[in-house]
Amino acid sequence: MFLERRALKDDFFSLFGLPAQYDVDEAALDAAYRTVQTQAHPDRFANAGDAERRVAMQWAAHANEAYRTLRQPLKRAIYLLQLRGVDIQAESNTAMAPAFLMQQMEWREALQDAVQARAVDQLDRLLRDLRQEKRERHAALGALLDAGDNDAAGGAARQLMFIEKIEHDASEAIDRLED
């Protein structure tokens, strides 16, 4: 059985037989996830004892968490940093480069102005800009991780967290205005 060779404490990359790196072969991740889910699906253990059913449920939950983490580039980067012993201190470390702080303020002001003006076209433009910025920063984050520059990668991840938050806020604002 596939799962017998693995332990619930295995890191997410090992669980799916993938190298622990930022760039992930999404097709391989999807296929490995399906394999693990097939092996651990609780329905396969419907007639098993309580202990076996409980272990199957733990495996399924572990696989789901691993898949959700590795499927999303920012979560994957943060997880990689955790594996390397780096805590990005997302809640407590708000130190950012002055240029990024200025950019944050500009994005927030643009969001607020567009919402107040009920200007969906401005929100769409902001969203496009944010998504482009996010793509560029993900590429930079990957390069930092590949180079082993974990401190800089942690800072880049914190910045991406902010970008994803304002992107989410802009999307929600568009949805509210279009309803």
Secondary structure topology:
Layout: H1 12-15, H2 26-40, H3 50-71, H4 73-83, H5 98-117, H6 120-147, H7 150-178
Helix pairs in contact: 2-3, 3-4, 4-6, 4-7, 5-6, 5-7, 6-7
Describe the overall structure.
This protein is 72% helix and 0% strand. The longest helix has 29 residues, at 150-178. The relative contact order is 0.11. It has helices at residues 12-15, 26-40, 50-71, 73-83, 98-117, 120-147, 150-178. The chain is globular and about 60 Å long. The protein folds into two domains: 2-71, Orthogonal Bundle (Helix Hairpins), CATH 1.10.287; 98-178, HscB, C-terminal domain (Monooxygenase), CATH 1.20.1280.20. Helix 2 packs antiparallel against helix 3 (50-71), helix 4 (73-83) runs parallel beside helix 6 and helix 4 (73-83) runs antiparallel to helix 7. By secondary structure, the protein is mostly helical.
